[in-house]
């Protein structure tokens, strides 16, 4: 995710501080569709529209800050994954990226399944009418209550993450008189090229059972002999926001290797493998994401080739994209509150949200871009840091970016590519109310997750 510092042109060369900014774009009014949702555009009056609706109308009707989601774009991306993987594979959307009942319905209509990783996500899916057999249940520490609910509901699979969980799920299923379909999540020992907090396939982290030292093989041995379990496959998820395909390829190779060992030891050919999510998206114009059909082709080829060499029946593949489906489909709309130029440094632009609606910059040093969306401007670019309203100097939304020098309080600015892991990781820090999610399509806008109110906040405070 790193970018190198560029000389920023004569106007800035003598005043720019150390940083990781690119040169200012030649025209700040242009919106790059690498990072903006597909139906976003700038009208003749300079106001940005999405799904045919001007952002000024959205701000008036729904307030700011707000996450604005392009429903047509979400559906198109979901469909692109479905089409790329075809009928021999399953696509499980990872609900942790962003989940709401409307999203569950879109997924069902577009033919995607759903990965949930908590009782809350499971409850959301079930309450929206998702067929339980299309749900995969994840997590490294599912509670007994969560497992019981999932087994009772009849989820399509539970992904087992530890030896204790193998025994726990078997016991719960058996006591409910059921045989639960399960996969075992293994750690393939790949160092994914991403931020260390979101890499999950190296050995020294909490997820999965290591392939190393025969541990995964031992987990399979146990699962195959427990009456409450039907072992249907092996799962691997190497991390998130990954551009380099080689990690996925190594993972696929090692998972197929384990299938072969299982066949050789037990005479059983497991019918499925899941290769997780993790495909990166463009947060800035410097990022070059891979397309679903590229990953489908690469994974299909490697699994097919290796299974043929091992004389294994090719298992059904599944994948779990989250960010790559929903990330690019939304932007966060903010109103500018104050504009504070710091001589020789940069201009601090304070917005009406911050780290409570987007923690990713503080947590992962993530990079974002930003644009003035309530009007066009021909003013010179100025180097800005977009910050929130929280009592924290690390409350940064966009670390280094350029906005027009005539930016003023009351202007609307928007940060694109905030569909994934922003609303789902939002907090009430400083008792700030979480923003709504507004879905826009064909000239219509509707709230799919409403803005939190002070009543919502106080309802929980029962002391
Ligand atoms: C098991 C599992 N599957 C899928 C995902 C989705 O990842 P991403 O949003 O990067 O596609 C995650 C999160 O990293 C995960 O932990
Ligand atoms: N929440 C992370 C990714 C973790 C994905 C879940 N395993 C992000 O915002 O990038």
TrEMBL record:
PROSITE patterns: ODR_DC_2_1, ODR_DC_2_2
Keyword Membrane: no
Domain Orn/DAP/Arg decarboxylase 2 C-terminal: 331-419
InterPro entries: Ala_racemase/Decarboxylase_C, DAP_deCOOHase_LysA, De-COase2_C, De-COase2_CS, De-COase2_N, De-COase2_pyr-phos_BS, Orn/DAP/Arg_de-COase, PLP-binding_barrel
EC numbers on record: 4.1.1.20
Domain Orn/DAP/Arg decarboxylase 2 N-terminal: 72-326
Residues the record lists as binding substrate: 323, 360, 364, 392, 421
Modification type N6-(pyridoxal phosphate)lysine: residues: 96
Binding locations of pyridoxal 5'-phosphate: 278, 320-323, 421
Pfam families membership: Orn_Arg_deC_N, Orn_DAP_Arg_deC
Catalyzed reactions: meso-2,6-diaminopimelate + H(+) = L-lysine + CO2
Secretion signal, residue range per the UniProt entry: none
Pathway assignment: Amino-acid biosynthesis; L-lysine biosynthesis via DAP pathway; L-lysine from DL-2,6-diaminopimelate: step 1/1
Cofactor: pyridoxal 5'-phosphate
Keyword Lyase tagged: yes
Keywords: Amino-acid biosynthesis, Decarboxylase, Lyase, Lysine biosynthesis, Pyridoxal phosphate
Function noted in UniProt: Specifically catalyzes the decarboxylation of meso-diaminopimelate (meso-DAP) to L-lysine.
Subunit structure of this chain's protein: Homodimer.
Family membership noted in the UniProt record: Belongs to the Orn/Lys/Arg decarboxylase class-II family. LysA subfamily.
Protein name: Diaminopimelate decarboxylase
Organism: Streptomyces graminearus
Taxon lineage: Bacteria, Bacillati, Actinomycetota, Actinomycetes, Kitasatosporales
């Amino acid at each position: 995710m790193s970018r190198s510092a560029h000389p920023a042109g004569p106007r800035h060369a003598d005043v720019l501080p150390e940083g990781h900014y690119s040169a200012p774009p030649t025209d700040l009014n242009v919106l790059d569709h690498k990072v903006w949702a597909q139906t976003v555009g700038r009208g003749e009056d300079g106001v940005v529209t999405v799904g045919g609706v001007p952002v000024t109308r959205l701000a008036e009707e729904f307030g700011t800050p707000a996450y604005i989601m392009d429903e047509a774009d979400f559906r198109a991306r979901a469909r692109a994954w479905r089409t790329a993987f075809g009928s021999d594979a399953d696509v499980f959307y990872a609900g942790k990226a962003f989940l709401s009942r409307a999203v569950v319905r879109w997924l069902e209509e577009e033919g995607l399944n759903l990965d949930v990783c908590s009782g809350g996500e499971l409850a959301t899916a079930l309450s929206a009418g998702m067929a339980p057999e299309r749900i995969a249940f994840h997590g490294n520490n599912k509670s007994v209550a969560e497992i019981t609910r999932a087994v009772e509901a009849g989820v399509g699979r539970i992904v087992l993450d530890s030896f204790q969980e193998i025994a726990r799920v078997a016991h719960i299923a058996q006591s409910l008189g059921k045989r639960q379909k399960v996969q075992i999540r293994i750690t393939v020992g790949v160092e994914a090229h991403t931020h260390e907090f979101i890499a999950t396939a190296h050995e020294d982290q909490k997820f999965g059972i290591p392939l190393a030292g025969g541990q995964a093989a031992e987990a399979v041995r146990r699962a195959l002999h427990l009456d409450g379990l039907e072992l249907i496959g092996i799962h691997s998820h190497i991390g998130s926001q990954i551009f380099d395909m080689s990690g996925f390829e190594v993972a696929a190779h090692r998972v197929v290797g384990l299938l072969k060992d299982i066949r050789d030891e037990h005479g059983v050919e497991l019918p499925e493998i899941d290769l997780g999510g993790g495909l990166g998206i463009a947060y800035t114009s410097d990022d070059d994401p891979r397309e679903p059909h590229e990953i489908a082709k690469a994974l299909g080829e490697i699994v097919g080739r290796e299974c043929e060499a091992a004389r294994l029946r090719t298992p059904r593949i599944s994948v779990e994209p989250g960010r790559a489906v929903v990330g690019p489909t939304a932007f966060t709309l903010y109103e500018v509150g104050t504009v504070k130029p710091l001589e020789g440094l940069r201009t601090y632009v304070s917005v009406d949200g911050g780290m409570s609606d987007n923690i990713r910059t503080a947590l992962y040093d993530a990079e974002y871009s930003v644009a003035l969306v309530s009007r066009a401007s021909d003013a010179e670019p100025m180097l800005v840091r977009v910050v929130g309203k929280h009592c924290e100097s690390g409350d940064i939304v966009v670390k280094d970016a350029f906005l027009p020098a005539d930016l003023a309080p009351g202007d609307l600015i928007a940060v694109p590519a905030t569909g994934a892991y922003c609303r789902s990781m939002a907090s009430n820090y400083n008792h700030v109310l979480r923003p709504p999610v507004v879905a826009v399509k064909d000239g219509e806008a509707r709230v799919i997750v409403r803005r939190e109110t002070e009543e919502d906040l106080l309802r929980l405070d029962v002391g």
